[in-house]
Amino acid sequence: MSKRKLEELAIILNPDLDQVAVAKEDIPAGTVLEYNGSAVKTVVIIKKGHRFALSDIKEGEFIRQYGFPFAQSMGISKGDLIEISNIKNVLPVDKDGADYKKPKETILKLEYSARTFLGYGRKDGKIGTRNYYLIVPTSMCSSETALQVALKLESGMDILKNYSNIDGIVAIPHTEGCGCDSGLQIDRLINVLKGYVRHPNVGGCLIMDLGCEQTNCERMQPCLRDVSENALKPIDWVSIQERGGTRRAIDESINLIKQRLGQVNGVKRQTFPIAKLIVGTECGASDSFSGITANSIIGNAVDKVIFGGGSAILSEVTEMVGAFDMMLPRFKNMETAHKFKKLLDWYMDLAKRLGLTLEPNLVPKNIEGGLINNYIKSLGAVIKGGTTVIEDVIDYAEPLKTRGLNIMQGPGNDPESLTGIVASGANIVCFSTGKGTTTGDAICPVIKITSNEDTFSRLPEDMDFDGSRLLREKAIVDNLGQELLDKIISVASGEKTWSEKWKQRQFQIWTAGKLSL
Predict the structure, then answer these.
(1) What is the DSSP letter of 458?
(2) For residue 154, how far is the Cα from the chain centroid?
(3) How far apart are CA 317 and CA 395, in angstroms?
(4) How many Å apart are CA 224 and CA 193, to the nearest integer?
(5) Does residue 155 have a pLDDT over 90?
(6) Taking phi first (over 0 means left), then psi (-120 to 50 degrees means alpha), and beta for anything else, what does residue 53 get?
(7) Which of 458, 453, 493 is nearest to 471 (CA)?
(8) What is the CA radius of gyration of the chain?
(9) What CATH architecture applies to the domain 273-319+347-501?
(10) How distant, in Å, are the alpha carbons of 67, 197, 293, 441 from that of 503?
């Protein structure tokens, strides 16, 4: 029988309230762990990332991690593995904000407000971290042709070797724009496309339609009148039917873009405060350590950006179910809290009407990694939003209106969530991953932060930051948060992330009415 100190093999997130610990490595059955002057003997093998009880947890008692409940015990003994078979996915009755107290305002800190990065200044006052030329198909009918134009210019002709200030010529093909109801689905597509055209990471655009779709150029032009009339950036329009077919539309597009690249390339990086950064936060292929390491480090770095006057976007509402009480003390006011509650209720109502549940948000690899229900996943997911005041709750792809931390309506589906976050204005993204995902974005740099050492070593040319050092090196989260802030500034100033190097340029719109998890 081996005897070890508990902190050598496991971690407790809130020692004052948690009745569980998370194994940092596989712990053999029968291991005696010394903790708080007593001993915890493991009943079975506790695999890395899984939880075990520090004390007896009576039937009906709520089990806590991060100090908040994530399940109800069916009767668990000290040293037992916490698993699907001995818990109920039940939370305490929601008090609906009965204990709410308005939080103190977020205070700027000189040590962060003095930090700067090198970005692209735009005429509307927004600052880009990249300078792309963007080809925007208005519907699925023009998407393939738009993609061919981008590939011919960027890869086939290698034209960018003459334009050092342009990061790429990118198309954003998609499956929307026609063959659907003319209401919310079309409105959402237009909002997303507007967000990308207006985005400060875009220096110029060519917008392409087939000609007869619901979202043709005739429909899109009034939506972008402010961009064109104020000459915020060069925009050209090509209609495939009007030009006489695919070949002619491609040739015309290439000619128009060649004439614009000199103008787009003329914008150079200048120094700006980090107050001009909007950090999008995302997690995918999560494991039990995502909320402990990677998300905690992201949250700490996000706080620092906000202390410097910047902003951040937290989304993936399906991964916040069960975290309302945890987030409640941070809402600017109860009106903002109720806006968030409506998002949660909307998902629940849609799932009910479709005869579905939100349970599939938890995939088998999540469970294998130690996330045994949606609630524990949610508690870890919201950590990446840091600790500052939640200033506003916005719709999917809605432009940011308020500095500081904002929650955006959006699913857990990585490409759909990222697309909405960037359309809302994020000019850099921090993305945590447990099992490892290679997802990027069409126009925005994405920094991948791993939660565990195995993934970082297995995917060395996809992961940008090793968050597992928080456990392995006995580092403190504030130091690693400072390192990540430095990385954010370097990337914002032009350093390429792995997803950019591999041209992981995902763009996927969340179809209105679809229960995306």
Answers:
(1) H
(2) 28
(3) 11
(4) 10
(5) no
(6) beta
(7) 453
(8) 24
(9) 3-Layer(aba) Sandwich (3.40)
(10) 40, 19, 27, 9
Instruction: Name 93's Cβ contacts closer than 8 Å, sequence gap at least 6.
Output: none
SS3 category, 378: helix
How large is the average pLDDT for residues 481-509? 98
Asked whether the predicted pLDDT for residue 111 surpasses 70, the reply is yes
Provide the CATH number for the domain formed by 3-88 in this structure. Answer: 2.30.130.110
Give the position of tokens 């990027």: 440
The arrangement of strands across the sheet holding 132-137 comes to 168-171, 132-137, 202-209, 235-239
d(CA 432, CA 450): 6
Q: Let me know the angle formed at the C-alpha of 171 by 166 and 173, rounded to the nearest 5 degrees.
A: 160
pLDDT, tens digit (0-9, with 9 covering 90-100), for 301-349: 999 999 999 999 999 999 998 898 899 999 999 999 999 999 998 988 8
Q: pTM, whole model, 2 decimals?
A: 0.95
Report yes or no: 20 and 52 within 8 Å, Cβ to Cβ. yes
DSSP conformation letters of 78-126: TTPEE-GGGEE---PPP-TTTT--PPPPPPP-HHHHT-EEEEEE-TTS-
Distance from C-alpha of 187 to C-alpha of 208, rounded to nearest angstrom: 18
Q: Do domains 119-270 and 273-319+347-501 have the same CATH topology?
A: yes
Q: Is 229 exposed, middle or buried (0-12, 13-18, 19+ CB in 10 A)?
A: exposed
Inform me whether the pLDDT recorded for 149 exceeds 90.
yes
Please report which confidence band the pLDDT of residue 1 belongs to, taking 50, 70 and 90 as the band edges.
low
The first and second tokens of residue 341, run together, are: 């509650």
| SS3 label, residue 442 | coil
Using CA atoms, how far apart are residues 476 and 462, in angstroms rounded to an integer? 25
Q: What is the CATH number of domain 119-270?
A: 3.40.50
Alpha-carbon dihedral sign for residues 64, 65, 67, 69:
negative
CA distances from 118 to 115, 169, 361, 403, 425 (A): 11, 21, 38, 20, 18
Max distance between CA atoms of the chain, in angstroms, equals 82
Residues 385-403 pLDDT 10s: 999 999 999 999 999 999 9
Beta partners for 41? 32
pLDDT higher than threshold 80 for residue 279? yes
What letter does residue 206 receive in the DSSP assignment?
E
Domain boundaries, given as residue ranges, for the chain? 3-88, 119-270, 273-319+347-501
Whether pLDDT at 100 is above 90: no
Burial 233-244 (b: 16+ CB within 10 A, else e): bbbbbbbbebbe
Residues in a beta bridge with 280: 313, 429
